Amino acid sequence: MRAAVLSFPGSNCDQDLVWATQQVAGGCAEIVPATATTLSGFDVVMIPGGFSYGDYLRSGAIASVAPVMTAVRHFADAGGFVMGICNGFQILTAAGLLPGSLQSNTQLDFVCAPTSLKVENVRTPFTNRFAPGTTITLPIAHGEGNYYADAGTIAELEAHGQVVFRYRENPNGSVHDIAGITNRAGNVLGMMPHPERAVESLLGGTDGLGVFTSLLAATKEATYASR
Amino acid sequence: MFKAVINVNYKPSVLDPQAEAIHKALGRLGDDNIATVMVGKYFELTLNAPTIEAANDQVERICDQLLANVNMETYRFTVTPLQGATA
Fold this sequence. Notes:
The complex is a heterodimer of chains A (227) and B (87).
Chain A: E1 2-7, H1 14-24, E2 28-33, E3 44-47, H2 68-77, E4 81-85, H3 87-94, E5 101-103, E6 111-119, E7 135-142, E8 146-148, H4 151-159, E9 163-167, E10 178-182, E11 188-191, H5 209-225
Parallel strand pairs in A: 1-2, 1-3, 3-4, 4-11
Antiparallel strand pairs in A: 5-8, 6-7, 6-9, 9-10, 10-11
Chain B: E1 2-10, H1 17-28, E2 40-47, H2 52-67, E3 73-81
Antiparallel strand pairs in B: 1-2, 1-3
Pathway (chain B): Purine metabolism; IMP biosynthesis via de novo pathway; 5-amino-1-(5-phospho-D-ribosyl)imidazole from N(2)-formyl-N(1)-(5-phospho-D-ribosyl)glycinamide: step 1/2
Subunit structure (chain B): Part of the FGAM synthase complex composed of 1 PurL, 1 PurQ and 2 PurS subunits.
Family (chain B): Belongs to the PurS family.
């Protein structure tokens, strides 16, 4: 796996993603600035958490039109694996690469706590190393993680197994307790919880590691398939 | 030159936690007769465009692409010629 970890002004989880991918999971990762115009040579794109462009206008809105996002769009259209975490999820919805949007938590608090999640779909490039029906614990840290989409969109997501992570106890008002979704094709994931902050027992848990080992397995498979 | 005045608001179907909080705070002030609260964003742009129709089209595109999240928000705008300026 050779992952491009995007970095926008105000991103603050980019180094954590590099660490989790490289030092812990054993893949390769490289920081790619928001001004980049190509993603060739990479087989995964990771969009980190943080407050890109200060969350001005709406979270993710300014980043969604940054130069690198044209390349991300092409990368995703070609079937490349794209994972947006927290602000990365907000950017992917703002860019229209994932349906719906993230609005302010209903209680208006910034929530920062370990959260129990059900892995709803293990047939994705991001979750293939989890056992079906597993419950995992990952930290959340967001003020705008309240997933919203209209009823028709939610029905579509549910019907096609696109709800990948669901909160056991809803921390922010998300419809259907949604914590993470993929696009219809399954190659683009957005999630509010932070798997990269749960990859070493020293930091409180390793439940997030499965996301990175799943991507390692999926990229390996994709490489063989293309030969 | 034209001036565009744009308002962006949540769709009525979307619960706005910020508006809810303000509504409750108004109640605490004793203003318990407030029926609804709506919070939105206000933008003013000045732009060069050949005609008012072109300016309208451009502002609509800008709203759709960036200023509003059409998934949750609606917008309305007016475009007027700037006094003392020529198109």
